[in-house]
Structure formats: C-alpha cells, structure tokens
Write a structure and sequence with these properties.
By secondary structure, this protein is α/β, with parallel strands linked by helices. The protein contains 5 helices and 6 strands; from the N terminus they run ββαβαβαββαα. Keywords: Lyase, Metal-binding, Zinc.
C-alpha cells in the first residue's frame, strides 16, 4: 500500500557551476511529496501523523528558511568567514555536490530512509512548473556511483 504525504519548505541556493541566472543566489518554495510503502496490518495501517512527527521537524530544523550550499562553492567559505568575523549565524544545509534539485532529492530520500520509512519515490517541486520524481532505483544507482551527484565521470571511465 502507498501512503502519500506532502510537505513544503523555503530555501535559498545557487548553482555555482552554471553561467545563467541560476548562478545567482535565489530561493524557492520547495514542495515535497513522499510516497511511503506500508504493509497493511489491519483496519488502520499507519497514522498520517506518524510521518509528520519526524519529517516536519526535520525539514523545519535543517531546510526551512535556510541555504542549500555546496561546500566546494567559493561563496560557502565567504559566508563562513562572515560568520566567524561577525558572530552572525546562517542556517546552512551543506552538500558535498552542487545543490541541484536532483541532489536535493537524493539527500531528502536518504534522510527519510534513515528515519526508518520505506519510500517508493518522492517528488520534489522546485517551481510551480518544475517537478522531478526520484525513485528508489535512482537512489540505489546514486549510492552505487556517487560521481552522478557531482557530474564527474565515474572513476572507471576517467581518462
């Protein structure tokens, strides 16, 4: 059985490797739709609140009104230096790769799996007209070949 739950959060990011408008720091109201696989054990399988009790606080603490940032982005060190110099603190969600919606989906999928939930897939909405579907098969492939996250060639293919 599939149970579907929807969430949203606001976050800033940039795609530092691009040369278009997305290289600029900007924000999105991200939408997340989780498709949970559950086993029917009786008349009541799962309370929707069981999902919300873990996922909503996680999104609020780590994502909402924060900045998704690649630790290799030169802007990251600039912002960290600003924090050291001024004592001001930013909410960073640090990535080891570009903050693309694909990498966001990988990260969210991984975190939700770590909470003990079984996902068939998630949908991540970056804008009203731009949504990706990220499946368990995508997650397995990304874990098998981490070069997919950075866009590098797999080590066996490098020249």
């Amino acid at each position: 059985m599939i149970i579907q739950k929807q969430y949203k959060f606001y976050a800033a990011h940039r795609n530092e490797e691009l040369t278009d408008k997305c290289r600029n720091l900007h924000g999105h109201r991200y939408g997340l739709i989780c498709h949970f696989e559950v086993e029917r054990t009786g008349a009541l399988t799962t309370l929707f609140g069981d999902f919300d009790a873990q996922i909503e606080p996680h999104l609020k603490e780590h994502y909402d009104h924060g900045m998704l940032i690649n630790k290799s982005d030169p802007l990251y060190e600039t912002l960290k230096e600003h924090e050291r110099r001024t004592g001001e603190r930013f909410r960073f969600k640090e990535f080891d790769a570009p903050t693309t919606v694909e990498n966001l989906a990988f990260t969210l999928f991984s975190e939700i799996i770590e909470m003990g939930f079984r996902l068939s897939h998630i949908e991540v909405r970056e804008t009203d007209s731009s949504v990706i579907t990220y499946t368990r098969e995508d997650w397995i492939a990304d874990n098998r070949d981490r070069s997919r996250l950075s866009g590098e060639k797999p080590s066996a293919v490098r020249e």
